Amino acid sequence: MAQGIEWNKDEVIEILKPYFKMGCNVTKACSYAGIPRTTVQTWIEGDDVLRLKVENWQNEPNHKARSNWIAKIAEGDYPSSLEWLKRKEKDEFSDRQEFTGADGKEISLITKQIEQKANSILDD
C-alpha cells in the first residue's frame, strides 16, 4: 500500500469482504474500495487461513447461483433441468455440433479433395 502508511489488516479485510462476496478478485475489490492492492495481495499469499476465507467469500455467488438452479430443478422447471443435463451429462444431452465431413473425415481433407477435383476440371 502507500509507503509510510500502516494499514490495519483486519479493518482492511472487513472493508474488502463485501466485494469479495460479490465474486471480485483482489485487484477488483481493492479498486472498488479505493485501497492499493499490493499489501492486501501479500497478506493473502502469506496467510493460508485468510486465503481460504477470501476464496470462500469469492465463491458465494457461485454457491447461490447453483442453489437457485437446483431449486428450479426441484420445482420441476424443464428448461433448468435440460440446461443442467446439457452441462453435466454432455455425452448424452449436449447440443454438440460436429464439424466433420463425410464418414467423419476432417473437413480440411474434403476441402482438399474438392479443390483437387475443381482443378482437374479446370485443367481439362
Strands, total number:
0
Order of helices and strands: HHHHHHH
Q: What proportion of the residues form beta strands (DSSP E)?
A: under 5%
Helix content: over 70%
Question: Strand pairing plus helix content: what structural class?
Answer: mainly alpha
Number of helices: 7
Count of individual domains:
2
Q: Give the quaternary arrangement of the chains.
A: single chain
Biggest pleated sheet: none
- From the alpha-carbon coordinates, what is the Rg to the nearest angstrom? 27 Å
Distance between the termini: 76 Å
Q: Any idea what the shape is?
A: elongated
Uncertain regions: pLDDT < 50 for 5+ in a row? none
Q: Give the mean pLDDT.
A: 86
Describe this structure in words.
By secondary structure, the protein is mainly alpha-helical. 72% of the residues lie in helices and 0% in strands. α3 crosses α4 (48-74) and α4 packs across α5.
